[in-house]
């Protein structure tokens, strides 16, 4: 199981990479492996605001649909348009080209509510 050390994780299996005040968000390797092949990703449009732990979209696998939970509060500033054509990037490259959205982080203190790679590995027994 791949759990990069430079990311923060939610207990709901989303990750965030923080660069300056921008957060790139996706689902974890653990989550995509549990869901199976992703056939569709429903992500919000640019301009929407979400609070930490709020549902911001969903992913559809062959047998199930799973909600996506916001790891940090923020405003959506970019969506990954590649996922419209290739939703399986979430499976093959969950921490690279399979990212979902980028946000402008509203409250950086919320990072304290997230898990480190080591804590997330313990949560998933990876």
Automatic annotation (TrEMBL):
Residues 22-104 form the Lipoyl-binding domain. GO terms for cellular component: cytosol; glycine cleavage complex. SUPFAM superfamilies: Single hybrid motif (SSF51230). It comes from Chryseobacterium taklimakanense. Keywords: Lipoyl. This is Glycine cleavage system H protein. Its cofactor is (R)-lipoate. GO terms for biological process: glycine decarboxylation via glycine cleavage system; protein lipoylation.
């Amino acid at each position: 199981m791949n759990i990069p050390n430079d990311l923060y994780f939610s207990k709901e299996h989303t990750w965030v990479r923080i660069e300056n005040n921008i957060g790139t968000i996706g689902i974890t390797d653990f989550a995509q492996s549990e869901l199976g092949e992703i056939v569709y990703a429903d992500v919000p449009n640019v301009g929407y605001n979400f609070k930490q732990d709020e549902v911001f979209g969903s992913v559809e696998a062959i047998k199930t649909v799973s909600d996506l939970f916001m790891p940090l509060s923020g405003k959506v500033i970019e969506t990954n348009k590649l996922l419209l054509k290739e939703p399986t990037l979430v499976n093959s490259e969950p921490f690279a080209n399979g990212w979902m959205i980028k946000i402008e982080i509203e409250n950086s203190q919320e990072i304290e509510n997230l898990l480190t790679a080591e804590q997330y590995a313990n949560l998933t027994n990876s």
